[in-house]
Design brief:
The complex is a heterodimer of chains A (304) and B (257). Chain A has helices at 47-54, 104-114, 122-128, 145-158, 178-191, 203-209, 227-232, 237-244, 284-288; strands at 2-13, 21-32, 36-40, 62-67, 70-71, 87-90, 163-167, 195-199, 212-217, 220-226. Chain A is of the alpha/beta class and 304 residues long. Chain B is of the alpha/beta class and 257 residues long. Chain B is 39% helix and 26% strand. Chain B has ten helices and ten strands. In chain B, β7, α7 and β8 form a beta-alpha-beta unit. In chain B, α3 packs across α4 and α4 packs across α6 (151-163). The longest helix of chain B is centred in the last third of the chain and has 18 residues, at 181-198. The chains are: A alpha/beta (304), B alpha/beta (257). At the A-B interface, α6 and α7 of A face α7, α8 and α9 of B. The complex binds adenosine-5'-triphosphate, iron/sulfur cluster and magnesium ion. Residues 236-237, 273, 275-276, 279, 281-283, 286, 291, 298-300 of chain A line the site of iron/sulfur cluster (SF4).
Chain lengths: 304, 257
Amino acid sequence: MTLLTVDDLVVEHRTPGRPLVRAVAGASLTVAAGEVVGLVGESGCGKSTLARAVCGLNPAASGTITFDGHPVTPLGLRRRNRALAGIQMVFQDPYASLNPRRRVGAQIADGLRTAGDTVTAPADLLERVGLPRDFAGRHPHEFSGGQRQRIAIARALAARPTMLIGDEPISALDASAQAQVARLMRDLAVESGAGLLFISHDLSVVRLIADRIAVMYLGKIVEVGRTAEVWADPRHPYTRALLGAIPAPDGAGVLPAELSGDVPDPADPPSGCRFHPRCPVAMDVCREREPTFGPVACWLHEPA
Amino acid sequence: MSLLAISDLKVSIGGKEILRGVDLDLRAGRVHGLAGESGSGKTMTGLAVLGLLPHGARTSGRIALGERDLLAMPAKELNTVRGGEVAMVFQDPATSLHPMLSVGRQLTEHMRHHLGLDRKQARARALELLGQVRIPGPEAAIDRYPHQFSGGMRQRIAIAIALACSPKVLIADEPTTALDVTVQAGVLRLLRGLCDDLGLAVLLVTHDLGVMSAVADEVSVMKEGLVVETGPRGQVLRDPTHPYTRALLESLPGETS
Ligand SMILES: Nc1ncnc2c1ncn2[C@@H]1O[C@H](COP(=O)(O)OP(=O)(O)OP(=O)(O)O)[C@@H](O)[C@H]1O
Ligand code: SF4
Ligand SMILES: [Mg+2]
């Protein structure tokens, strides 16, 4: 069952005195119940903006977001949007979702109250994320980054979300703890039948936990597919470049290929295919017309 | 030739033994990779070399930089070694960059302090360093602030600062973990090139065995405060002898292509 549908979404950032930034420029994506979708792409491509729009934190300029059959409208327009009660977000910095002044247990209890859950104790949730029960009586600052992020996940889960969104939820963690916490998020989401949209710049972690992967470039989803298939046979030249830049642990001492150039300024995107200035196989048509189809938005993969 | 030799390094903090006798050898022009899971002591080993262990840490063993033992060195002398002969780069470039100071100011202050250069000489060297780490348009970049650069560029600037005083030894702790793979590729190439061209001895701490495989010449694997395996990259990654190294390699998702 499809839980979340993002359809041709456009989100713009306006800063006085600066050109309009179209951070999400017509992106489409779905997440089903019990499914993990990994959203990857280089810094600044619009991943966070998309995630925030799904949570009602950024208004859509056009396009639609539907969650559980209800349209998502920005927060504050009509008090709390009904559709949003089922969505919980975990951020890169656990302090963004935890209050440093309140005890961990009390914050988890807030989530339980949202869900109308009167039987689960905060300590039960701590246990589920692999932390000792007695942490409930302590404050966030008493914990390491990894422990804080587990607490933020426990808090998010307490509200019994049907959709969990993690925006780089592991990147502030000690590198060797990242895969562990990512697996934990996957297991907990899938166990409870929730969907998980997992945003990360770490492709190897996404490969580990995502059922499907969506590759974003400059505000657009350029390729979507089952993780194993995309890995075995990446089709969009950008996906190829991304995967090609991952060094293989084969002991051969081969330096990974560099993708030349930076992500262009979204305030002034290239004409035609947005990837054409960096694409090694760009053709004439690429400079003039934008490939707006899926699942691979590239003129080399136009559906018949 | 060994530039930095760590022998039987033990560190305990609050009665807990964190390093239990680490031996490592860093050579000029070589990248020595240090792998191992969270809490195995990789970062502590790097911090010990830098004299940056947490307050109250007790140490024994020897960290020899040439004839000198860094563990026995007075704090003041160690301060000149750190940022001089021994430099560092961390996971988060924000650790090494001051948000309120221009890039040029951060680069030159370092050099004026350690090398005694005047303003003009320091600026010239700063421009040269920015070029060396391939920051586009060094002349304009030098007067900008860290937040005006992307993450990859910030890490390059952190590397430029680390190189400012021509170190012999560079400790790089997860230097590319926070970066996009496309950007990581460039930073790894940069590190490898600097190591080759400047004869730097690099200690590269990383949990990523792919990164290890791409740039390390020697690889050591740590577990619970001890180095359990050390050897040439090809041997450790293809034909590991320690069961723990094998387990680390087997936990990686299978190669499909
Ligand atoms: N509040 C804002 N005001 C103006 N521009 C913004 C704002 N937030 C983001 N942007 C711009 O929108 C674009 C997309 O940013 P976004 O944060 O969504 O990217 P991202 O993919 O999450 O990047 P990262 O991987 O670095 O987190 C960027 O060009 C960014 O500079
Ligand atoms: S449409 Fe053209 S420029 Fe764009 S990715 Fe495909 S081949 Fe490259
Ligand atoms: Mg983001």
